[in-house]
Design a protein that fits this description.
It is globular, with a radius of gyration of 18 Å. The chain has nine helices and eight strands. The longest helix has 27 residues. The structure holds iron/sulfur cluster (2 copies). The site of one iron/sulfur cluster has 11 residues, from helix 9.
């Protein structure tokens, strides 16, 4: 079996085992895993697009060859639970916390597996890897996911994959040379495809998301409000109203 298939297998089986043993309530669907070559020219553009503090993979692992990026979709009931209320649903809040923990565990496991094969590996944190004042990320899973061919950006600023956008992304940098996943030039967002959808903008009752702009600070303030409400669960700086039960929640709506 090729290393790419082995890594997909390791991640899938780890999630299954984690579901069985963790005692967590969140349920996940099968992940999508893809790979990017660290010499992809787009990695060099991230400092321009996101900010100077965004790391190049080689700044995190000097002999890096590949970035492994994966998307773990939430079960549909979690997404449905987050429709229509002002604050994020408890199920969504819990899924955010539990999936971040799952990602930390997956990354540790994959790093250990890769090391046992003689490769170096550097896991990246599931979240909270950004500057809280400027809200600039040091490592953006969604941009790295785009480079790795995992999907395309929607009007809501999230990455839409073939399994939608409701879930969490994780990534690991490794010295293993793995064939990169091909990026498609196709659009995944109906607005960018043919202007037939604005559902995410309609769902953002907080006016943070508009067609012309996204007010990052306003959005983060709402996320912090949810963090205050759900402080018993951990740091739930999340909202997800713009992605919950919209055409791109569970699939790439352009290809369907
Ligand atoms: S809800 Fe519609 S407009 Fe918004 S990102 Fe999804 S497909 Fe695009
Ligand atoms: S996460 Fe919430 S506040 Fe932020 S854009 Fe989406 S709906 Fe609006």
């Amino acid at each position: 079996m090729k290393i790419a298939e082995e890594i997909r297998d390791w991640i899938r089986s780890f999630i299954k085992e984690f579901k069985r043993t963790s005692g967590f309530l969140t349920e996940w669907k099968d992940p999508i895993v893809s790979f990017a070559d660290v010499n992809d020219p787009l990695f060099f553009k991230l400092k321009e697009v996101i900010g100077k503090s965004h790391a190049h993979p080689k700044e995190l692992l000097v002999n890096a060859s590949t970035v492994i990026v994966y998307f773990i979709p939430f079960n549909d009931n979690i997404v449905v639970s987050n429709r229509g209320l002002n604050i994020c649903s408890k199920e969504w809040a819990r899924a955010y916390i539990e999936t971040n923990k799952l990602i930390t565990e997956i990354n540790g496991f994959i790093a250990q597996k890769l090391k046992s094969r003689g490769f170096d590996a550097k896991p990246t944190p599931a979240t909270h890897n950004f500057n809280e004042e400027e809200l600039i990320s040091d490592w953006s899973h969604k941009h790295v996911g785009y480079i790795a061919g995992l999907g395309d950006f929607g009007l809501h600023q999230m990455l839409i994959t073939e399994k939608g956008c409701c879930g969490r992304l994780g990534s690991i940098i490794t010295s293993a040379r793995i064939e990169p996943t091909k990026r498609t030039e196709k659009k995944y967002c109906l607005y960018f495809y043919n202007k037939s959808c604005l559902k995410c903008v309609e769902n953002c009752i907080y006016d943070a998301l508009k067609i012309e702009n996204f007010n990052k600070q306003k959005c983060y303030d709402i996320c912090l409000e949810n963090a205050r409400i759900y402080s018993d669960l951990g740091l739930v700086d999340a909202c997800g109203k713009c992605v919950s039960v919209v055409p791109c929640s569970f699939k790439n709506p352009v290809s369907s």
